[in-house]
Hints:
The protein has about 425 residues and is an alpha/beta fold. It is built from 14 helices and 15 strands. The structure holds nicotinamide-adenine-dinucleotide and zinc ion (2 copies).
Amino acid sequence: MVMGRHGPRDLLAGLDAGALGSGTRMEGGAMKAVVYEDVRTVGVHDVEDATVEADSDALVRVSSSALCGSDLHMYDGRTGAIPGLVLGHEPLGVVEHVGPAVETVTPGMRVVVPTHLYCGTCHMCARGLSASCLRARPEGLGAAYGYAGMGPYRGALAELLRVPWADANCIRVPGEPGDEHEDDFVLLADAFVTGWHATTLADVRPGDTVAVFGAGPVGLLAAYSALLRGAREVYCVDGIDARLDKVGELGATPVDFRRGDPVEQIRGLRARAGFPLGQEKLSGVDKVIDAVGFQARDRDLTDRERPDQVVSDAARLVNPAGAVGIAGVYPQLDLDPRPGATQDGQLSVPWGTFFGKGVTVRFGRTHDRRYTTSLRDLIVTGRATPGMVVTHHGRLEDVPRLYRHLDRRDNGVVKAVVSP
Ligand SMILES: NC(=O)c1ccc[n+]([C@@H]2O[C@H](COP(=O)([O-])OP(=O)(O)OC[C@H]3O[C@@H](n4cnc5c(N)ncnc54)[C@H](O)[C@@H]3O)[C@@H](O)[C@H]2O)c1
Ligand SMILES: [Zn+2]
Ligand SMILES: [Zn+2]
């Protein structure tokens, strides 16, 4: 049961689980949704139906909605989620209604909806920089569904989703709900696009050597994207068996940090394979991707977080004149910062190493508008099957249990997708 609190209307709209009882459908009024209640507590409640609110909105009936490692930053009480927030930002579904100003989207269309919603027409959106949309969130740049600090938009772990600026945010996909591409297409909402974005941040080119830290869905799909882009060697570091197994399935080389320093392991693997003539000094990798973020495990004390662990490993491993792409989240507000970090996101970084090597470092949320349709077409033509990373399916009622497993990274859960 959610406590009565005051918050943005859209977040708390009609939330009264006690009165309605879980699973009850109110005529024209209530839908089931996954709601953040408190630290490590989420529930399935009846909330007011999502509706078309603005003329440019669409209402989407969700067929699949994925859980994400990003949700865990809120789940763990780190990034200030308000109780009552409807969670979820990775939806695939079918358009049910559209507002009178929507021109290209019609009821019945199967669509994937990118996490980071955007207006589609502002200065940044016009340049494909939709994660920095100037209009989606009055108090900042860019926005997301069901996410603390990312605007008033309710989440997608629900039966229905209101999609603002529908012409820009409803990405059409072929086929029918539940067909062979359901898991592939749902990953276009965030994980595949973010994995690809990470390879863009790191400027991965044909022939590169690449190391990805983190073999969660984002890291796995960054490794997969690096292979699609023609990298010659791709290593992916983690400390969880189920995830390391997936690395191998995707065609990359798993590196288990429980067996020792991953930087030395990767240098050792490269040396054993033999360096190209005259390139012995390039014993690291050309491109490094951080798909872990601020909740990185300390490799020496794995029950603890060390927020600078991956950045310092990346600085050691990257080759001279290489690049580092940071897609793992480093929040501007961390309610419970760990040693080495501050509440406002300051972190000590080995600047000297980066400068000495002449390394380029890029950060940030994915610019969905740039990549979603191209990656969709790789799926449709059979060149990409990102759905390989999905390990668990369920219903909305299973989400509290699935978040528990995801948070402990146990039970073999890598990516979970539920169908409302
Ligand atoms: N930039 C974006 O637009 C964007 C979008 C989605 C997710 N993200 C972020 O990307 C990150 C990964 O997301 P995910 O869904 O894959 O999360 P996840 O939590 O499932 O995966 C993180 C993985 O990192 C591993 N890990 C922890 N410490 C490590 C270390 N020191 N070295 C190597 N691996 C380590 C964990 O074992 C885990 O498997 C999160 O921070 C998430 O918030 C960013
Ligand atoms: Zn996500
Ligand atoms: Zn915009």
